[in-house]
From TrEMBL:
Database matches in InterPro entries: Cyt_P450 (IPR001128), Cyt_P450_CS (IPR017972), Cyt_P450_E_grp-I (IPR002401), Cyt_P450_sf (IPR036396), Cytochrome_P450_fam2 (IPR050182)
Gene3D superfamilies on file: Cytochrome P450 (1.10.630.10)
Family: Belongs to the cytochrome P450 family.
This protein's name: Cytochrome P450
Keyword Metal-binding: yes
Family matches, as PANTHER family: CYTOCHROME P450 306A1, CYTOCHROME P450 508A4-RELATED
Amino acid sequence: MVIPNLDSVLYDPEVWGDPDTFRPERFIGPDGKLIRYEEFIPFSTGRRVCLGESLARMELFLYLAAMIQHFRFLPPEDGQMPSLEGILGVICSPKPFTFRAVPRL
């Protein structure tokens, strides 16, 4: 069994600067086009790449696009944002959190 440690690449401060900060704009260049980093390998790479990567990307896009079209996502009433710390295991999972999904009119 091979279990690669992708976190060593995905959370490398030398590559990402501040890997624990949510900044989607780091993937958009000055010309507004998508930047593809060689170090961004959430589905692994080479001979061990996930066979379902294209299906997962398509499904995530369709699901998230539909959710964003129909809802606004807001912090809970108390305004407390979720922790960015994860629960470590075979994968890194988020800690339980709450939010509000308000239907768009």
